[in-house]
Structure formats: structure tokens, C-alpha cells
Amino acid sequence: MGNPRTLYDKIWDSHVVDQLEDEAYILYIDRHLVHEVTSPQAFEGLRNAGRKVRRPDATFAVADHNVPTKDIEKGITDPESKLQVDTLEANTAEFGVPYFSMTDDRRGIVHIIGPEQGLTLPGMTIVCGDSHTSTHGAFGSLAHGIGTSEVEHVLATQTLVQEKAKNMRVTVKGEIPLGVTAKDIALAIIGKIGTAGGTGHVIEYAGDAVRSLSMEGRMTLCNMTIEAGARAGLIAPDETTFEYIKGRPYAPKAGAYEQAVAYWKTLKSDEGAHFNKEVELDASELIPYVTWGTSPEDALPITGSVPAPADFADEGKRGAAERALKYMGLTAGMKLSDIEVDHVFIGSCTNGRIEDLRAVAKIVEGRKVKDTVNAIIVPGSGLVKIQAEAEGLDKIFVAAGFEWRQPGCSMCLAMNPDKLAPGDRCASTSNRNFEGRQGQGGRTHLVSPAMAAAAAVTGHLTDVRELG
Amino acid sequence: MEKFNKLTAVAAPMPLVNIDTDMIIPKQYLKTIQRKGLGKNLFAEMRYKDDGSEQEDFVLNQPAYRNAEILIAGDNFGCGSSREHAPWALLDFGIRCVISTSFADIFHNNCFRNGILPIEVSQEDLSKLMEDAERGANATISIDLEAQEIRGPDGGVIQFEIDQFNKHCLLTGLDEIGLTLKKENKVTEYEETRKMQQPWL
């Protein structure tokens, strides 16, 4: 036997096609997910060079960023958004790439439908021209975002030229308390290590708290890995994973499934494997988190207060805090739970899955959205929407005063009509609170679905544990 | 892709940490299906007022820096989204080199695919370069990729590290897809072995 290897080492080793020179390797890509925003220039590149898509069967496309979440039957009215989606449709037809159209029930956010359809499997390499591709690492697949030039490279060659990243392990121990979710764990980690804490690394999440998460929770955790600077997050697959995959449309069928599971069971870090960086967290000490600033690392427990720039030792961080307070319209020292919101957004590839919607329904059932708050719920896919409606969740949401929308990326990045106006303040289950992210001048506070539901009801950031 | 070898140019100082790709190119400009033409939208929300006129105090609107080809920026430059529109916008504006203490991984990769050189330096060197850049148009900075050197306006030299593959790509303006396609037989071989070992893929 060779040296003990990490899960990342194992997946990497099994995908190396060739070494080019020094640190550069050709890495085989098993699954390539494609959406409308980062692919048009890549398909054009192929066309100009007279190249084909090497493996259309390993490629999958869907439009998500630009699609409206209201009256989808009427099509897209914004001409630029329409052109981008039409271009994807034409490109997938020309190059023979499977595509879920905007009227297909199975469509949705690319990182929701990959796992939902069984396109995401343990041990795979998965890429997409989208940084939240890290989501798929929840299955023990090496998954990360790429740029458009790399999209073109994968389309043409089914490989990427890569350098190997370093190994980092984040161990989350202990029992997760009531009211605390995978989103809070993710924000706590990013608050601790910073948005550049994982740069140059692949993060493996371990520990009994991580093991206790559902696949939905694991996806939320891996989704936010890019916000900690690491391109990919990984969780070793286990029975929870295998159970989730079983029977999904593109998953291995009986016979092949058993063979696959036998292999998937080998996908874990060996005892004694070396990690370049180790971080530990005790989940049992966590309480729900919110962000106060314009970087995901500006995360604090809801019981805290808005910090002052002087609280930061680092000069760069001090400057950033000053700028963030001004942008966010907040005063140092005010209690986080006193921050009033006028918008609530529930959805995105971070928190747009069925479990997230169930968590919201639990809080808002029998309650009302405060009349000063505009609250929307956007399911992550058509199938999540159908499932939620089958469970009667939509009725709970509408009765409480939420708008129940059609699937898409929506107000996570506001490329479609759903956006904040300057000065609007939003409690959002999405992943980024950057300046202008949800609309120019809009102010974002990142929270879990349960915390977003609580804010919708009270009209201010609220410790969901107080609502019981 | 345009080659990169030597560059002597004005450097614009941006002493902000965590400059994210949403700042570099806001999402309303991602709806294009072209690579070119994004330079006018670079840093749009910091660079323009609501009525579309320029924010006078934004660095790239100041006369000294309108023709800057180098950016000196705070830590963790290019964090956030994978959008290659960020390097496209920088390049279309005329920026060929960004110097910081660290870069987000995907942005870093995207730079090399577009003939932009990202250089990582120590905090001490960054502070010195930031001071140099703040002196404006009379204080140009020179980059020599082959020698891996930054030369400041006062003649001070900073050595930088870069991995050899990316260096080679920039120096030669290499078509990476063409290079990989030369290894197509290896890819085919790999696929055949995989089909035997993991037939479910």
C-alpha cells in the first residue's frame, strides 16, 4: 500500500490523464453542467475553430440565471436575457447537448437539478461555468466552478488543464442545536477562516455534525465553500448519500448501482492522510448566524452587535468595515436583531431545496408576513415546486403572505426581473452579500431559511429560536 | 490570446480588500454573448453615478490613471463568481496586469486564459507598490515576465513567483485547447479504461 491519501487525492489520482509539465496535469471531467450566462462565448469558440463537443452525453444544459419567476408561460421580455437563453437553446441543439427547456417541469437551478436527476455521483469530477458548482461536492465528487475559456476546453476535450490544490479539513463536531442549520455552520466557518481562508485548497468537511446532515444540508455547506475561498468542498459519501441517489433518473440502475456503491464506499480519506490545514468547530456551541456587511465573512451570531471598524486589527479589514457600514446603512454597536428588513428572499442553489422550504413552512404556518415586508419564495427547481405543492407548503406560504414563484436563480444575483431597489434591505437565503449583488444599492443579510422566515414575520432580523 | 512578456505602464492603486467579481463587472453586463466591449462597464457601480456620469473620485476616472494598464489591489482580489467577464472587462479597458497579496482561485485561472498576468507579492511589497502607484502618471511600473521581476519607478526590484506552465502560456500566447487535443489518444485511452472499471459513468 502507498501513502495514506485524502479523498481529494484519490479522486484527483483517478482522473489524471497525463502530466504536461511541472505542476500542470490534464484532468478528465466526468460531468459538465452548462448554463446560459457563461457558455455562449465557449460555443462560439468551438464553432470558430470547427471543433465538436467531445462528449455530449456527459454534458447537460439548462437556463437558470435569466429566467423570470413569474408568468414564465409568456416567455422572457428582457431582450438581452432572451437572446442569452435562445442562444443556449440553439447551441445545445447544434452540438447535440441534452437540455431542459424553460417549459420542462424538470428545469431549475443547475446545481439543484444535477443532484435531483442523479447526474451528480460520488467520485466524479464535475465542472460548470459557475462558482457554486462546489455544491456537488456534498456527494463526494470533486466539483468546482470554471471560467468560459475552460468551459470551451471541457466541451472540446472533456478535460481540464489543472494544478493540484492543497488539502484542508474542516471538522465540525458535536450535536447541532435546534434552530441551527447547515447554513449557520457554513457562515460560522467563513466568519472564522475568512473569504480567503480556503484559497488554493480543497476543503473536506468531516466530523459527526457533518455526518448528521441530510443531503440537502450537505449541499448547502459545500455550496458556500467557494465563499471561504476554496473552489471545491467535499464530504465522503455514506449511506445517506447512496440512499439519496438510488432510483434517480440518471443514477446507475440495478446491478450497476450495487457495483457503483461498492466503489463509492472506498471514497474516504485514509487514516493518517495529510492535510495542509486543519480547522475545528464545535456545532453544539453555535447559534443562528447573520451577516452584517458586504462579504460573507462578515458573519456573526444573531445575538451580537454590528462591529466598529476599530474592532479590526488589520488595516485592510478596517477600511473594508468602514465601507461596508456606510453601504449597509448601519451604525456600529447596534444590535443585529434591531436591523429592520423590507424584503425577504428564500431560494437559490444554497437554500432552494425541499428541506429548506419545509423549514420555512414550519416557522410561518399560522403566522403572517409583516405588512412592511415583501417576501418571495422561489423553489430551486420545477420538481421542488411540485413536491412542495404536493405537501401543501405553497398554501401555507400564500396564506402567510409570501409570493410563491416559479423556479430560477432569481434574486440571488438579480439577473432576471427580481431585484432590490437602492436602499432596500433583504434577509436572504442566498450566498453572497456583495455590494449590488441583489440589485444596485441593495443591502443583503445572509441567513438560513428558518431565519429568513422569522425575519419575514417580525420585520427585523430575529433569532428564530425565540419564535419556537 | 495576446502574448505577455514585458510591460511598462501606469499603475492604478485600489487599496480595497476582497474586490469581488460583482464589483469588477456587475451582473447586468453578463447578458452579452460577446467577449469584447465590456471595458466601459468595468467597475461600473463604483465608476459611474446613477445618471451615468463619472464619479470623479474613482481612481480610473482620474486623469493620471485613465490609461492605467496595471492595477495594484488589496488582498483576495477577484473573489466570488467564476464569470470570465471580469478578466474580459479588465482586458477590454486595457489592464494587462493585476498585483495583489492574493487572488481568488477561479479568477486567477481566468486571467491566464486571457493574457492577463496576476502577480502575488508580500504585504510589504504591495504597500510599496501602492505608494508608487499613488504618485500618478509620472511613476510607471515595469513588469518583466521572463525575468519574473517588477521594477518600481525608483529602480527597486521585486522578484515574483509564477508557475512555469502559466508563464509559458502567457509568454507564447498558447492555444491550450490545441495543446490538449494533441494528447487526444491519451484521453481516448483513459476513457476506454474507465469504461471497463466504472461502466455506470
What report would you give on this structure?
- The complex is a heterodimer of chains A (468) and B (201).
- Chain A has 468 residues and is of the alpha/beta class.
- Chain A has two domains: 7-277, Aconitase, domain 3 (2-Layer Sandwich); 290-466, Aconitase, domain 3 (2-Layer Sandwich).
- In chain A, 32% of the residues lie in helices and 17% in strands.
- Chain A has 16 helices and 19 strands.
- In chain A, helix 6 links the parallel strand 9 (166-173) and strand 10 (201-206).
- Chain B is of the alpha/beta class.
- Chain B has one domain (6-175): Aconitase, domain 4.
- Chain B has helices at 21-24, 44-47, 85-93, 105-112, 123-134, 164-172, 176-181, 184-197; strands spanning 6-14, 70-73, 97-100, 117-120, 140-144, 149-151, 157-159.
- In chain B, a hairpin with a 4-residue loop joins strand 5 (140-144) and strand 6 (149-151).
- The chains are: A alpha/beta (468), B alpha/beta (201).
- The interface between A and B is large, with 80 and 57 residues.
